[in-house]
Amino acid sequence: MHHILFVDDDANVLQGLRRRLTSVRPDWELHFALRGAEALAMAKDQSFDVIVTDIQMPEMDGVTLLEEMQKIQPDAMRIILTGHASNDSYLRTIGPAHQFLSKPCNNQTLIDSIENALGLRQRLQSPEMRTLVANSKSLASPPDTYLQLQTLFEDPNYSLDSLCEIVESDIALTAEVLKLTNSSYFAITQKVSSVSHAVRMLGLETLKALALFVGMYRGFDGPNSQITNLKRLCHRSQQIGVTAALIAEYEKLPREVCHAVPSIGMLSHIGTLILYANRPDEMKLVTDRVEQENIPIEKSEEEQFGAGHPEIGAYLLGLWGFPAPVIQAVAYHHRPMDLPHKEMNAVTAIYVAQHLTREIAIIDAGGAVESDIDLTYLEQIGKASRIEEWTSIARIVSGKYKQLTND
């Protein structure tokens, strides 16, 4: 039985929720509170899987309530339900809230959000890792630049000028936007120096993913010894996304898939960033084992933490309400063969790109490497003969990124 808590100072709202949800979700145990203090009292005796609260309430508003709930029940999914969708309202919720739903919220949107949250708990079995993700102040909610972009995109009449104003206010994001648009993915000979030009080329989903990753990287407050690793992770994730997109285009995958792949590539290692930010010393042990024993990093992570970065990253993105295909791609980017499919898709492109990117980096550094790409899987989807062409693509992107990072 799943326990869901709803908090709103309007008794009619709570009664309506009770009436609508009881019949359609009998497997949910519904709990209701009219005040923040009442909700906190209930939380002392009952654990909740999901907490949904209004933001505007007397005595204790929804943000304050979730801040307290975060201390009491750190691995609970926390959703703000509000009719006040200003930037200030969004930015106040950074940290305590995972998702934001606007009032009035239709039944299906609310049900889907809660069901997705419950499904995520099955994806990430380790309670310790769920608590780490859900309770981390730097990771519990998306960074502020990402939230500003998300709010802007909800307005169908937003302007390019307003979009560029948000990007240009974030120096780190501006740098990464220009770096990505000057990569080989866009196959242009003229250097892009205008943010507006870069934003038009990137597309909205890639821009949001980049803002998310840069924001999380910038919020890292761990030891300086890990900064180099994080910088390398950011650049490697971008490189994987670009390589995967070019491979997807070469294989003539649908246009919408090609456009989505760069952002998925960047997001595929969000879980690694979480582990670096919260467990830097243990991540040092993980990476040492990978180098010394030549084992996959996700295996080393799972043995150290009880979960690998694919599951952890997918869990975080699920908390934030990312679309199911993106969550699935992040969860399976190391194991696409575990998904039921018989032809190449976005996950295949990410899987191949990350292996080739890593192998080329080792070779360029003077090392030797034996490919870990599962040829049996590629044979099953009819792509085993493409390795040479894909390697050429990956090498071009690697050369371009090396040039960019040296500039």
List the helices and strands and how they pair.
Blueprint: E1 2-7, H1 11-24, E2 28-33, H2 36-43, E3 50-54, H3 62-72, E4 77-82, H4 87-92, E5 99-102, H5 107-123, H6 127-135, H7 144-153, H8 160-168, H9 171-181, H10 195-202, H11 204-218, H12 227-250, H13 255-267, H14 270-278, H15 280-293, H16 297-305, H17 309-319, H18 324-331, H19 346-364, H20 375-380, H21 387-406
Parallel strand pairs: 1-2, 1-3, 3-4, 4-5
Helix pairs in contact: 2-3, 5-17, 6-17, 7-8, 7-11, 8-10, 9-10, 9-11, 11-12, 11-13, 12-13, 12-19, 12-21, 13-19, 14-15, 14-17, 15-16, 17-18, 19-21
Plain-language structure description:
It is a single chain. By secondary structure, this protein is α/β, with parallel strands linked by helices. Helix content is 62%, strand content 7%. The chain is built from 21 helices and 5 strands. The protein has helices at residues 11-24, 36-43, 62-72, 87-92, 107-123, 127-135, 144-153, 160-168, 171-181, 195-202, 204-218, 227-250, 255-267, 270-278, 280-293, 297-305, 309-319, 324-331, 346-364, 375-380, 387-406, and strands at 2-7, 28-33, 50-54, 77-82, 99-102.
